[in-house]
């Protein structure tokens, strides 16, 4: 089964496209006046017929062919955790170096005015 996107085939996208076009045509035709407004019914019936044809007569098999599972191996596992630990240590060191400057900021007394 080729042409799979997000785990579904092209038929699902065709059905979605048919109903989106039918919805847009229904919205556009609902704004008209007179007998043209009644053409909403054939548009919806045509979308329904196309949907039923796509559902009852699929081109592919119902059971997908077995796919060989690919095993993913992370070769940089240890290096990534070493890098993460170094970044955490540097962040904590910078935080503790900034903390005394923020908390221990000197507060100077204002001089009294003498007349």
Walk me through this protein's architecture:
The protein has 115 residues and is mainly α. It has helices spanning 10-30, 40-56, 77-103. The protein is elongated, with a radius of gyration of 34 Å. It starts with 9 loop residues before the first helix and ends in a 12-residue tail after the last helix. The model has no long low-confidence stretch (mean pLDDT 85).
Largest sheet: none
The ordered string of helix (H) and strand (E) elements is HHH
Q: State mean pLDDT (0 to 100 scale).
A: 85
Q: C-alpha Rg, in Å?
A: 34 Å
Count the E strands. 0
Q: Which stretches are low in confidence, meaning pLDDT under 50 for 5 or more residues running? A: none
Helix content: 55-70%
Measured between the Cα atoms of the first and last residue, the distance is 95 Å
In one word, what is the shape? elongated
Provide a compact summary of the structure.
This protein has 115 residues and is an all-alpha fold.
Keywords:
115 residues, mainly alpha, 3 helices, elongated
Secondary-structure blueprint of this entry?
Layout: H1 10-30, H2 40-56, H3 77-103
Helix pairs in contact: 1-2
